[in-house]
Amino acid sequence: MKGLELNSDKSDKLDDNSSPCVDDDDAPVLSSHALAALKEFLAEQNPDAETEGDSEVVLVSEDWRLSQFWYEPETAKTLAEEVLTLSEGFNSRIACIACPTLFAYLKRINPNVSVQLLEYDKRFEQYGSDYTFYDYNHPEDLPSELKHAYKVVVADPPYLSKECLEKVAQTISFLAQPRDSRLLLLTGEVQKDKAAELLGLHPCGFRPQHSSKLGNVFQLFTNYDPGMRLGGWEN
């Protein structure tokens, strides 16, 4: 998720397993032991939990030096529900680029969902084989088995720079299946034209919100028409 460059200005941020290619029926799932270890690790990092009924999602603390800003619970749940809807329709794997909040909510809602987190922060190695180290400065320096392996790809670039978006777009193209993949990009509203140019994405009415209130307006972009969901495509 985070490149080697560091940025202490929160206004420049938008957000916030390495499994071999197999048949859908053999898609790997996180074991109960791994889930228990993950929950223990997250609880140690941050005792403050976000709850929904009996479900608890505990997140590691944000590190502003890595431009980390987590989603508000309602944003995370809305995104997770959308991604799961897309995944169920295609019965396929999901890639989350630099959006660990979404990953955590996906696993909470459906522990058996096949989702890969690509992230710079190595604290997330606790996710085991569902975690792949990712530095956007090297957009295709990834295990070969991840290439064109994902029908649903969600990305939240760590910085609002043209260079960062261009490199993350390379990673998206590396991961996404060549035909009929579903792409979701969360970034600043100012990236609208670049998102369209690089990936053919359209802005949705849905506005992501973050637990740390940021100065920039953020937006969700998709390569598919969500219809009545996510506020629909903007005209």
Automatic annotation (TrEMBL):
Q: Where is the composition biased (Basic and acidic residues)?
A: 7-16
Q: Where in the cell is it found?
A: Cytoplasm
Q: What is its EC number?
A: 2.1.1.-
- What InterPro entries would the database entry show? DNA_methylase_N6_adenine_CS, Efm5/EEF1AKMT1, Mlase_EEF1AKMT1/ZCCHC4, SAM-dependent_MTases_sf
UniProt keyword Cytoplasm, yes or no:
yes
- Chain segments carrying region Disordered: 1-27
This entry carries the following GO cellular component terms, namely: cytoplasm
What's a Pfam family this protein contains?
N6-adenineMlase
Keywords noted in UniProt = Cytoplasm, Methyltransferase, Transferase
Q: Write the signal peptide boundaries.
A: none
**The keyword GTP-binding is annotated on this UniProt entry:** no
Q: Which GO terms describe its biological process?
A: methylation
Q: What is its main location?
A: cytoplasm
GO molecular function ontology, one term from the record: protein-lysine N-methyltransferase activity
Purpose: S-adenosyl-L-methionine-dependent protein-lysine N-methyltransferase that methylates elongation factor 1-alpha.
Q: Which PANTHER family match?
A: EEF1A LYSINE METHYLTRANSFERASE 1
Q: Which family does it belong to?
A: Belongs to the class I-like SAM-binding methyltransferase superfamily. EFM5 family.
* The protein's name: Protein-lysine N-methyltransferase O6P43_009424
Organism name: Quillaja saponaria
